[in-house]
């Protein structure tokens, strides 16, 4: 799909900007470009709420919020957890114990790496490069357990990491159970309750502040961002996003590696 130039919304009429984190604000090396930090702080001075919406757990969301000097609401674990004005857990949607056990029964024999997230804690049965990198991203080590099934009742999200071809049947199984199952990247499959998506998390925060879609801008790069992009009155997909994600947005901006969000926000600031 060829994107035609879109008229940017006015920052004066914008009440909320919802931003994905990984692949949008943060590079794969866990780095936030300086131009992004600077322009985000400038946007906040215009009485516009900036809200993070991420697959990351609350502890990791708070770390990013502190770096960006953001305060207030955030969507965590793909919408399974909503943080309130104090960045405390306000809403949590669990996967359901039976659903988690069913997924684990099929996932474990495939050899994929499995991480289970409650709200403040996360669990794994192994320590491998995937888990070690996730610990850096999360900013907190997992609880290593001999039986991840023991924490099924408190699970808000399952992360399955492996070959895309191995994960697709598990996605199909999860959807058959009525779960939300989306790839954040091709080898990362994220499972949450059907009531837990970024779209629904964004809608919840919009309702809290009586904000309408035409007052919202959303930016993302992954398949788990599509619902959020569709809900917002204006949406931007990253230049590093898959083409089918870009097709859902009003415009495509530069890549995360070039500080695309910062460049986009700068254009909004010039449109005040």
Strand fraction equals 15-25%
- C-alpha geometry: globular
Estimate the helix proportion, in percent: 25-40%
Structural class: alpha/beta
Low-confidence stretches: none
Strand order of the largest sheet: 8-7-6-9-11-10
Q: How are helices and strands ordered from N to C?
A: EHEHEEEHEEHEEHEEHEHEHEH
The major β-sheet equals: 6 strands, mixed
Radius of gyration: 18 Å
Distance between the termini: 29 Å
**Number of DSSP strand runs:** 14
Oligomeric composition of the shown chains: single chain
* Separate helix tally: 9
Q: Return the average pLDDT rounded to an integer.
A: 94
Quick structural overview:
The protein has 272 residues and is α/β, with parallel strands linked by helices. It is built from 9 helices and 14 strands.
What does this structure look like?
By secondary structure, the protein is an alpha/beta fold. The chain contains nine helices and 14 strands. The protein has helices at 34-44, 58-68, 97-107, 129-138, 164-176, 198-209, 226-231, 243-246, 260-269, and strands at residues 16-19, 49-52, 74-76, 81-83, 89-92, 113-117, 122-124, 143-144, 157-161, 180-185, 188-192, 216-220, 234-237, 251-252. The strands form three sheets. The chain has a six-stranded mixed beta sheet with strand order 8-7-6-9-11-10, covered by helices on one side. Helix 4 links the parallel strand 7 (122-124) and strand 8 (143-144). Helix 1 runs parallel beside helix 9 (260-269). It is globular, with a radius of gyration of 18 Å. The protein starts with 15 loop residues before the first strand and ends with a helix.
